[in-house]
Amino acid sequence: MEIKTAIAKTTRYAMEFNGDTCDIAERPQGGISLILADGQGHGLPAHHTSGLVVNRAVSLISDGTRDGAVARAVHDYLYAAKDKKVSCTLTVISADMDTETVVMSRNSNCPVIVKTDDYTCVYDENVNPIGVHHHTKPLIYELPLSPGMVIVSYTDGISSAGRKVNSQKADFKKIMDIIKNNPPEDVSFIVNSIMDYALQLDNNKAGDDMTVIAMGICEKDSTPVKIHRVTASFPF
């Protein structure tokens, strides 16, 4: 199988720093993790918070820490470092080759959406963000790793898009249609389409920091040489 990932993010209109941070970590027993955090507030303080959370999560995952323990440890760190006064959402999506499963860890007010060849699930139960409430735990979901899977999540700038323009939030059905109508090979198209839709609702002036992440599990790559490829673009 082949794992494809994609990330699209933009900063709140007229702000220099993005309060969302995301990264990719290789798992020591094989596989990768997508980590997404949204720091409380906007601008540089939120950027510092989410960056601190993601960097700590990447370090723990690289050390072999399981995803549920990662979320708890990062919560404890933020809780102590910010004196339980700053919150942050955290989502981790992992393709774990050791267990041959996709593991999703959520401390976010935004859903994780999973599409397979047989069904579509939306994981959106209420859960606390990390950093504020002492006994905060993540919600953990685990599914067998199989070709055809698409896993998508985003920050609340996507779900709230359009609110400041016409007092209406993004239509979740349209986001679902984008995911349902595209295969795992096209995760870049999926994240870009969701981002384009949200920006259109905000008249291309994002009302909040926006980030979309996606992971696709594809059929085995038939090429004789296995090459890991990462492409990134950072406009400024």
Question: Main traits of this protein?
Answer:
alpha+beta; 236 residues; globular; five-stranded antiparallel sheet; Phosphatase 2c, domain 1
Structure summary:
The chain has helices at about 45-60, 65-80, 155-160, 165, 170-180, 185-200, and strands at about 1-10, 20-25, 30-40, 90-95, 100-105, 110-115, 120-125, 140-145, 150-155, 210-220.
- Average per-residue pLDDT, rounded, comes to 95
User: In terms of structural class, how would the helical and strand content be classed?
Assistant: alpha+beta
3D shape:
globular
By CATH, the superfamily comes out as PPM-type phosphatase domain
| SSE string, helices as H and strands as E | EEEHHEEEEEEHHHHE
Work out the strand percent: 25-35%
Protein described:
The protein is built from six helices and ten strands. It is globular, with a radius of gyration of 17 Å. The protein has a single domain (2-218), classed as Phosphatase 2c, domain 1. The termini are far apart. It has helices at 43-62, 67-81, 156-159, 163-166, 172-180, 187-201, and strands spanning 2-10, 20-26, 31-39, 88-96, 101-107, 112-115, 120-123, 139-144, 150-154, 210-218. A hairpin with a 4-residue loop joins β6 (112-115) and β7 (120-123). Helix content is 28%, strand content 29%. The chain is of the alpha+beta class and 236 residues long.
